[in-house]
Every structure is written in structure tokens, then in C-alpha cells.
Amino acid sequence: MSYIPTAEERESGACRLSYRTREEERVGLKHVLKPFSAWLKAFSAPYTVPIQETLRQASDNYRGWHVNQIDACTGCGNCADICMNVAIDMVPVVETTKKDTGLRPRIDYGRCCWCGLCVDICATGSLGLSDSYVWIDSDADSFRYTPGQDAKPWDESQRGWRKQRKQKAKEAA
Amino acid sequence: MTPPSETMQASKEVQLWVGPQHPGIPGNMSMQIWVEGDTIKRGITHVGYLHRAFEKLIERRNFYQTFPLVCRICVPEPDTNEYLLAAAIEELAGISDQIPERAQWIRTLVMELSRLGALLMVVGGQAGGVGLGAAPNWMVALRDYVLDLFEELTGGRVYHMYIIYGGVRRDLPEGFEARVEEVLEKIEERLPTIDNLIFESAVFRKRTMGVGVIPKEWADQTALTGPVVRGMGIPRDVRKDYPYLKYPELDFDVVTEDGSDIYARALVRRREIDQAIDLIRQILAKMPKDGPVSTRTGNMLRWQVPAGQTYVRAEATRGEFGYFIVTDGTDKIRRFHVRGPSYVHGVSLLERMLPGLNISDMYPLMGSLQVCPPEIER
Predict the structure, then answer these.
(1) C-beta neighbour count of B334 within 10 angstroms
(2) A22 interfacial to chain B (CB closer than 8 Å)
(3) Rounded CA gap, B99 and B162, in Å?
């Protein structure tokens, strides 16, 4: 199991040996004073970011809350199959304009790990992750919702993690 | 051997539990130590506070589903894990020669960026272990700039989930190289002040020089790797010894120091920050400007990899990191094993070093061995 020191090691203590000379280990006045040079930073501008009143904007690729174009989605269920945390259920939606399975992904944020595999596998490219990352609610059940059907502030967001093929096509157009 | 608490020594020695909730402990682990006065007589590492059974979870998921899991095996530096999983599966699937040139350069860039971020944090952490407060805060602030780069590149700040089978998930964003250079300059500008705070400080020198010395003959006895062994003057580095990715094309020397104590290990890491900055500049200069960044693998849901087994390794900040993977021709991994440097450093080595150590030197020592508990109990 664990290492049991020999009697000799207990007495001498292997960690008491040193490969350094006394000269190397010497601490002089220089070493007492030098750390105080950090006080010079008191006169330069701070390089930390002050707390902002507005939220910091996330990057273009950010993996935040899900968005779904519910009309483009065909309800194939690939996103639910690839999800390793079983965070996605396919649930019937109230109305769809197309003749398909009639199911749409519902995300459970108690399980989601924001890996973005559901977005990468989406055949239509309708599912995406927005750049929005703040959401406060006192009702825990509201953190399980069907993106696209349940209206959220980030539904219209164009930024965030999207399927690459769609992105390229958009750039070409 | 009977624990001292059950013998006559019980009145002489006091048994202490340090952690898991203790500022000196490097993560979710605890130490059980027996002390006599200020001197540690014996110590045992206890893990299990973070056990998520990574290995077993991975054996129950198909290949694409495993990849968001591995980055959790080491939080400060997840990209080594992602690369190793991708490299092992690509080798077993027989597509390792099809990985595009640019994807390999991007992987090398990501590995070095994550090394830079992890080193900034751990050098600050080592200073924190001896009670210096300002340096760790400044180092973590610098690391935040690196995390900003990762957010832009991969979409996540801490868990990147970026290196995937067949290449990487996205190409570099426009103007990314320039922003990397900006961050490197910012870091370089602030490092001399931090050097004055840590390596020129009387407190740090007194507390770390000649303390926590590893006898040089232990290097092979306990299979030490990484900055721990390089601090003993032995140039052992996976990037040189078993080259992978684009490291053979980069120009760098293995950093070594002779002291074999806590100070030497901190200095190795500090010099490796300079090395990582230099390597990132080399990578950006040598990287092909465009080209594909991934190649096609099988269907994400039903990809099957031929039966076989392999061991791949890479140099993490803490030492040699390796994956042993067995596949059996189905869509799942048959056996998955992580060889983390922390197991060696945090259990075999640490328990061997504790006897005779002063109790207040235990925290700088643990910081200098850079123990990462998830690797121990994977």
C-alpha cells in the first residue's frame, strides 16, 4: 500500500540532504529589498479588467445556451442519440408546419456539458449554441426547455457555436 | 507494519488529517500524517473525493461520446488528454497518416498554449504555498489572457473539447495569430516583476532552497518525469525522447536545473514559460497559412475501430502523460487506462519524501510536485 520508511531513513531523513552549496543558498540584503520593486506597479495603469456593469460579450465561437430553428429542424433525433449525458429528450411540439416526426429536442441543463456534439451532428444545421451564458431563474424546472418553441432572449442571436458547413455556405453567399 | 497509533508510540506521535478542505492541498485529496512535534514521521495519501470513474464511463460510450469526458481528467491543462485520445484512436483506426498538416500544427499550438496557461498557474501556486500572496494573483490574471484566447478558438474557456479524431473542430479565427502575439507580449512584459516577487525573494529562497530534496538515484526507482526529474538535472522530456506532432521541427532544448529541491523545480517551470512562449512564436511562423483542418472519420454514431491496442504518450506540464487503449472492433473502447504523472508523484514519491520533513514544508512540497488528484483516481 503505502511506503513505509526504513529505520535509517526515519532517523536521517532523506529530505535533509542538499545538492546546493552554502554560497548558493545564501540570502542577502538584495533578496530582502527586491520584492519591494513590485510597489512600482502602484504607479502604472492596472492590467486587470474592472468589473463591468454590462456583461462581457462572449467570443464568436462561444458554446452557450441552445437555439433551434424549429421549422428547419426535422426531428430526426440524432442530437439525442449522440448526447453522452442523455441531456436531450425528443418531445412532441404543439404545431409544426412540416410532415416529420413532430418531435423537437428538449435540453435538460442539469445534464448538459456544452460539448456541442449535438450541433456538429445536426443534419439540417438548425440546432446551435448561442453566445449567451447568463440565465437566472428561481424555478429549477425552467432549466429544461425546448429551444425554438419556448421563447428565450437569445433566440435571435447569430453568434455562438454553429455547424461549420452552414457557416461556410453563409460566408460564400 | 502496525500503525503507530496502535502501539506504544501513540502517546508520542499525533495523527493529523490535512484536507480535502485545506488551502495547502492541491485539489480534492487529503493527507493523513503522523507528527512528532513539528516533524512528520509518516504520511499516507488519501484520494477518492473526486472519483468519477472516468475509465469505466469511457468504456460505456461510443468513440465520439468519449471525447468530451477526457478533458476532465486534468482541469488546468485539458488539451493533453484530448490529443492523446485522438492520437490513440487514430492510430488504431489506421488514419494517423491522413491527419492534415495544418491540423497537426494547430494541435501543437493548442498544446503549447495550454502548457503556458498551466505553467503560469502552477508557478504562482508554488509561491502561494510559502505564503506569498501577490504573485499567484498576478499569475492567474496572466493565465486569464490565455483563457481568452482559448475561448475565441474553441468556444470554451476551461474545457476546450477542441482536438477531435481526424484533426481539430474549427479553423483558427481570423486574426488569431496577431492576438496570440499580443498576449505573449503582455505576459513577457509582466514576468520580470513577478520574478522579483518570487525567485529573488528572501522568503521564497529560504523556504525552498535545500528543502524537499529528492535523492538523484530515486529518478529511476520511482519513474519520475516532468519538471520533477528535470529539476534533478536529468534531461527527460517526452517531446525530445519520443517526438510527436510537430515537435521534431521545432527548435528547443530541454530545461534542466541541478538543485533537485523545491526551488529548482519552480525555476524549471519558470524557464519553461519562456520556452513555451518561444515555441508558440515558432509554431505561428512555421504553420501553413491555409488548408484543411480535419479529415473524415466514420459516422459519428456508429464509427467502429478495428481491434488492437496501443500506448501513446505526451509531455504534460506535470510529466509524462500516457493512455493505454484496447479496442475490440466494436463502437466502444474495450479498456482505457490513464498513466498520469500525479500517481507517481503524489503517492509513491510524496509518501516516501514525507518522513523527516517539517510540517510547514509539506505544502510547498506538494505544490512543487504538482499533484492533480483526478489523475490518481481517474
Answers:
(1) 14
(2) no
(3) 15
Instruction: State residue A3's pLDDT score.
Output: 47
Residues of A in contact with B257 (CB under 8 A): none
- Give tens-digit pLDDT for B322-377: 999 999 999 999 999 999 898 899 888 888 888 888 888 888 898 898 888 888 88
**Per-residue confidence at A173, pLDDT binned at 50, 70, 90?**
low
Q: How far is CA A78 from CA A4, B69, B195, in A?
A: 54, 19, 52
Write the CATH number of the domain with boundaries A66-172.
Answer: 3.30.70.3270
Q: Please tell me the predicted confidence (pLDDT) of residue A1.
A: 36
Q: How far is B164 from chain A (nearest CA, A)?
A: 11
Interacting residues of B133 by C-beta distance below 8 A, sequence separation 6+ = none
Q: How confident is the model at residue B8 (pLDDT cuts 50, 70, 90)?
A: low
CB contact under 8 A, B201 and A31: yes
Q: How far is CA A147 from CA A78, A154, A159, B93, B121, in A?
A: 16, 10, 16, 36, 38
Flag if B261 and A20 touch (Cβ within 8 Å). Answer: yes
Show Cβ contacts of residue A33 under 8 Å, excluding neighbours closer than 6 positions: none
pLDDT at B241 over 70: yes
Q: Do A18 and B193 touch (CB under 8 A)?
A: no
Quote the CA–CA distance of B301 and B306 in Å, as a whole number. 16
How far apart, in whole angstroms, are the C-alpha atoms of residue B293 and residue A119?
18
Q: Which chain A residues in 57-86 lie under 8 Å from chain B, judged by CB atoms?
A: 58-63, 78, 81-82, 84
Domain residue spans of chain A: 66-172
pLDDT digits (tens, 9 = 90+) for B85-135: 999 999 999 998 999 999 999 999 999 999 999 999 999 988 988 888 888
**Inter-chain residue contact A59 with B155, CB threshold 8 Å:** yes
What are the DSSP calls for B149-207, one per residue? HHHHHHS-SS----EETTEESSPPPTTHHHHHHHHHHHHHHHHHHHHHHHTT-HHHHHH
* Whether the predicted pLDDT of A162 surpasses 70: yes
Put simply, whether A56 touches B (Cβ < 8 Å) is no
Q: Which domains does chain B have, with CATH numbers?
A: 4-46 (no CATH), 54-377 (1.10.645.10)
How distant is the Cα of B237 from the closest Cα of chain A, in angstroms?
22
Of B46, B129, B35, B44, nearest in space to B357 by CA: B35
